[in-house]
Structures are given as C-alpha cells and as structure tokens.
Amino acid sequence: MENIALIDSFSEFKDDKLIDRVTLMAILEDVFRNALKKKYGSDDNFDIIINPDKGDMEIWRNRVVVADGEVEDPNQEISLSEARKIEPDFEVGEDVSEEVKLIQLGRRAILALRQNLISKIHEHDNTNLYKQFKDLIGDIYTAEVHHVRPKAVILVDDEGNEIVLPKEKQIPSDFFRKGDNVRGIIENVELKGNKPQIIMSRTSEKFLEKLFEQEIPEVFDGLITVKKVVRIPGEKAKVAVDSYDDRIDPVGACVGMKGSRIHGIVRELGNENIDVINYTTNTQLYITRALSPAKVSSIKIDEDKKSAEVFLKLEEVSKAIGRGGHNIKLAGLLTGYELDVIREGNLEDEDVELTEFSDEIEGWIIEEFAKIGLDTARSVLNQDVKDLVRRTDLEEETVLEVIRILKEEFED
C-alpha cells in the first residue's frame, strides 16, 4: 500500500470524529515517527513531509556516505557502494536522502500504524472533551435520558457525549424515562482510565443558584446578587439575596407577583419549598430573617462559639423548627450559627409538635400518630394508651415509651 493510499484510508476518521485535516496530519506524523523509532531505532534523521491540502506525505531517510566496510550505524550511515546504487556520483562524506516506502516498514507495522492512529485519535477526542466539560463545571446543562440504571441515570447530549447523573445527585422525587430532557449542573469531570466521566448534579446548591440566574433577569444582569444558598434537596431551601440598588426589592424581584417568577424553579426541583430572604450584615436581623416564617422575640448571640439562643413564643416554636427540623437546620447553615430555641410563655399552656421530638422518636412512629390526627405532644398525652394501640400499628411498649418522652418534656 502506498503512503497516500494509507492516508486516504485514514480520512474516514476525520469525518467520523470531526477532526480537522491539519490535526489529523499532526497525529499521523506522530504515529509514523513512533513506527520509525521501532523499525530503525531513531527517527532523528527522518524527514516526514505532509501536505494537508492534498492529503499526501513522503518519508525521507538522511544518511552520511562512508567508505565500504566502515558502516557502524546502518540507520545514520550508508556505504559508498550502496550510495552509488542510488546516485552513481556520490562521494564519501556526502549526505544521502532516500525515500522510505511504507511497504518497507512491513505488514505488521502497517497494521500497528492504523491501530496506533485510532488510539491517538481517541486520546485527542478525550482530551478535548475533558477540557470542554472542565470549562463547564458549575454551569447548567441539559441532556436526554438514554438509560436508567439503579445507581445512575445515563444521559446523552446533542453531540453524543455521555453524562452520568448518580442516584445520590438526584432529587428524591426525581423520576426519569428514556427520552426525557434533564437539567442539572456539571459538577465534576473525572478521568476513568483515559476516558473522561462527566458528572451531573441536581442536588447541588450551585444548581439552585444557577436556576436563579437563568429564571430571574435581575440576577442574570447582576442587579441582584445571590449571597448564599442552602438546601435539603426536594424538601426545603433558603436563598439569601442582596441588591446594591436601594430601588430594587431583591426578595420581591426573585419571587415575583404571587410567586410567578420562582414557580418554575420550585417545579424544576420537585416542589422544593424555597424561602428567599434579604441578606444583611446585621447578625441578629439575619438570624431573625433566616428563621422565617417564625417570629422571633429576641436573640442572644455568642460570637466566640458562633452560636445563638433564639427566644420564641410557644406558638412560634414549631414554625421555627419546621417539619423534620428542616427550617432551623437550614437557618443555621445559612447564617453560620448554631441555633438553640428557647421557649417563652406559660408551661401549663404549652404544646409542642411531635416533629420536634424527631431526635428521640423515630419518624415512622410520628407518622403513625399523624395518621389518626395526633400531631402535638398534648394531643397524644390526652389519649388512652389502649386506645392509641388499637388505632395505630404501634405496640403498647412503643406507645408507653413515647408517652414517657413527651411527659419528660413538660416536666423539664
């Protein structure tokens, strides 16, 4: 096979892989030089001339003429008699350039050349893909569901690139079918061997931040700044926003009339409840806003311990803590302070939501009481034990333990 014929056979890679002709020729030269090194020990004295426009190439070996019997390095030197077979007027000391035909490398070498070229092109593709998606880390990306697996959803973009959405990076309520379009952020690009693995996330705080940029023009234009985002994916999120223009209400602009602007974001996140609050450097005010919708009576801050005691009226306690403790947890993450709720008011009148006892009472037990309309401590304590056992799927021992925990709360 002539050199040019080999290049023509390689042109298929240019079309398949969308590699420009010049890059293909550069890869080709590198592959040939590797073959020459294996065949002759060195490629230093070879010239490879590639014409990317015509798609042809020539290989020339340069050697020095030495007297017969004095050849020490056959790759670098040629005897006078051998040189005169090429040109009859060569003399000792002159340089000889001789074209090397592909067939001289041998059939096995030609097959190896092709295999090496394929490998180099894949390497080139993977390097470009790695760089391309490295630059996209932290950006929103859309791809189509190609395959749903137990531990991950495999997505494919318009260019055929494979993207992995691991189970732990999915919102709990996410449910995907083949062909669905999925939005998330490119969270990471990892090299698995020589192949880049692109990781998407829908649970990242950055995803919510970028959704604000996409959906709210003032955020996109920089008139409103997203200062911090914290979230429990699929459940609840808090977003602190600020504006350097006093004429702009950052919360109002983000939420929109009757929640019109934020509705699309909430829907994208599986109806995740999003609280948008005004950022401030006033710590007491910031904590008060972060605990919304609860109304805080007063706050005692310990800057050294980065903690705060939050005093609330009895009816505000459950609002501050929130379902499953989500509200107070996110408020702490948003402000950077460990928050401790202190109840105010007459203990005789106090009642506490069962969700506040989630550290001591398992969630499924609390749910059993909720099924029969009992969602506060006193509503449970006012019931007969046998009646509670009959109306729920709980053992008497479990009911008695719950009652003990609830009574201790009021005794304390």
UniProtKB/TrEMBL annotation:
Positions of the Transcription factor NusA first KH domain: 202-279
One term of GO molecular function: translation elongation factor activity
Main subcellular localisation: cytoplasm
Location relative to the cell: Cytoplasm
Keywords linked to the UniProt accession: Cytoplasm, Elongation factor, Protein biosynthesis, RNA-binding, Transcription, Transcription antitermination, Transcription regulation, Transcription termination
Domain Transcription factor NusA N-terminal: 6-125
Entry-linked InterPro entries: KH_dom-like_a/b, KH_NusA_2nd, KH_sf_prok-type, NA-bd_OB-fold, NusA_N_sf, TF_NusA, TF_NusA_bacterial, TF_NusA_KH_1st
GO biological process, one term: transcription antitermination
Family named by the database record: Belongs to the NusA family.
NCBIfam families associated with the record: NusA
Subunit note: Monomer. Binds directly to the core enzyme of the DNA-dependent RNA polymerase and to nascent RNA.
Listed name of the protein: Transcription termination/antitermination protein NusA
The species this protein was found in: Flavobacterium beibuense
Gene that this sequence comes from: nusA
